[in-house]
Amino acid sequence: MRTIQTIFCTMILLSVVSPTWALDKNGKFAIKGVGNVSCEQFVQIIENNDPQKFLFAGWLNGYITAHNQHLKDTFDIVSWEDVETLGTYVKGHCAKNPKISFFQATTQLLNEMNDERIVEYVGAENMALGDQSQKTYVQVVKRVQSALKEKGYYKGDEDGVVSEKLNAALNKFRQTHKLPAANYLDQMTLHTLFREK
Fold it and tell me: Widest CA span of the chain, in angstroms?
């Protein structure tokens, strides 16, 4: 009886863990919800500020969670981007590729972000937001320190710890790039630091 239970549990575990088993015999699977919407339609919905945009945000969060669950060596495929920033990136990709689906555009974007993913959770640093705080992965803080050091703004250690030196370097970087002041690693600062050349 114990052997049968062990085999049964193993089969269930393998069916949940193995992403290749989620495909049919032809290597296909069903795409649900707004994933089927064309990029052209998605761009129109965003530009018209249509309330349907929230369906895309929810779908995107679920899709990212599925990626995180099924991708090998991945804790979080998106290391710092929030859903609004990701939506902006997908919109830009969709504007260039209006005939593909929202699913295809999102998949292509996440594939491009693969090298920046958080492979393993090692902790998060708290950053002040007035009376609130924001947690940022230690690996992202290290990347920020490294990028700021490379650009000549930061002289401290690349240890993943938020410090006065790091905050001063961030403020100087924001001033140079005419970004709004912030007491945390905001999306605009991170985008400018990591994505703009």
Answer: 69
Residue with tokens 């140079």: 176
How far is Cα 141 from Cα 195, in angstroms, rounded to an integer? 16
**Predicted confidence (pLDDT) per residue in 17-63, tens digit:** 444 446 888 888 899 999 999 999 999 999 999 999 999 999 999 99
Quick one: fold of 33-116? 10k-s Protein, Hypothetical Protein A; Chain A (1.10.890)
CB-side neighbour CA atoms (13 Å) of 14? 7
Give Rg (Cα) of the chain. 20
As a 3-state breakdown, the chain gives helix, strand, coil percent values, each rounded to 5, of 55, 10, 35
Q: And the tokens for 110?
A: 């996440």
- Predicted model pTM: 0.83
